[in-house]
Amino acid sequence: MQETKSNSLTQLALQRFKKNFWGVLSFWFIGLCAIVAILAYVLAPDSSKNANQMHLSIHSKSPGFSVKIVTIPSDVVSNQSFFSRVFFGTKNMDTEIPVESYSFEGDVLNVIPYTEGELIGITKKIMLSSFPDGLSTEDIKNEFIEERTFVLGTDKYGRDMLSRMLIGIRISFSIGFVAVLISLILGIFFGAIAGYFGGKIDVFVMWLINVTWSIPTLLLVIAITLALGKGFWQVFIAVGLTMWVEVARVVRGQVLSIKQMQYVTAAKALGYNHFRIIIKHILPNSLAPVIVISAANFASAILIESGLSFLGIGAQPPMASWGAMIKDHYSYIILGKAYLAIIPGLGIMSLVMAFMLIGNALRDALDVKG
Q1: Taking Cα atoms as reference points, which of 245, 228, 238, 214 lies closest to residue 308?
Q2: Structure confidence at residue 229 (pLDDT)
Q3: How far, in Å, are 12, 58, 67 from residue 55 at the CA level?
Q4: What is the DSSP track for 187-225?
């Protein structure tokens, strides 16, 4: 009977969620972003590690910019596995040269490198022996010379903005997932033992929560990051260690209410141990608000990571991070190239808004009073 009731409540919550247009739209948007994060190097035009292929001669170009690229293959043979290329990027050792024009002359490829303004680049000679043997000039033209279009333009180092944006999604999703996981583990543990056992344990946990909460989140994250050192995983741990307090307070309140229920009293009378009562009977009935908080914390983690990267203590270069991209280009706003900072800003805004909307939809769907 209780299982049937539980299933019916779950179905009812699911039906409510499906009726929320913005919640469903946000769910599919987040799902799409998750797929893009996993397949980032497959989808990105620049599949080199961290999309870090620089072309300084074509820096800060507007979206839709096109240029001819001549690729000179490297003699070093890459032995990367398929898995490594898909998830960690290609170790690109080839030399790429943006050119204005090119021509073949005997066993030499003459190229005029791309330059801005009215300046004409100095002709550069590339021996055809630099390319694989047995290729005709037509083969070299088809395989190693291409017209490349940068859909979102290039950054100040001449890197493809679209590729950097796609790979930057990984940072945002990773920080959100790991930080929320850490906050849930710590928050549920401390909240459950404080609410269930009460007494001195409750007093100590509440003191720990109040001390942690009294420190500004960004300052606490900065302090932990500086203590652990700058880096990718250090930021994840630092953000997670600052987000557990809200989870703990909510879980504590839920446990204080639920432990007075008759079925908990019956479980104690049957001689069940405290661990089983908390895990089997109390926590499953107190997770609805925790799920809502997790969605909000996911959004907060993305914002905090972006802020840390903007300050220079988040993900370190050349790693693609939306916050770091804004930091590199915010000064370009007054130079007529505001899109260099606006594009990653819109990425952060859309992903955070999606998590906030799905959090609101979950709150409405899981509200038993609704």
Answers
A1: 238
A2: 76
A3: 55, 6, 11
A4: HHHHHHHHHHH-HHHHHHHHHHHHHHHHS-HHHHHHHHH
Task: Considering the chain, tell me which residue range(s) the CATH 1.10.3720.10 domain(s) occupy.
Answer: 2-35+162-365
In tens, the pLDDT along 337-356 reads: 899 999 999 999 999 999 99
For strands 108-113 and 124-127, give the pairing.
Answer: antiparallel
Residue 348, SS3 per DSSP: helix
How are strands ordered across the β-sheet holding 145-150? 124-127, 108-113, 95-105, 65-72, 145-150
What is the CATH architecture assignment of 2-35+162-365?
Answer: Orthogonal Bundle (1.10)
Q: Is pLDDT larger for residue 233 or for residue 9?
A: 233
CA 146, 150, 156: angle at the middle one, nearest 5? 115
Contact criterion met (CB below 8 Å) for 106 and 119: no
> What is the pTM for the complete model shown?
0.85
State both tokens at 68. 């001819």
Q: Nearest CA to 320 among 308, 335, 309?
A: 309
322 within 8 A of 347, measured Cβ to Cβ: yes
Over residues 15-27, the pLDDT tens digits come to: 889 999 999 999 9
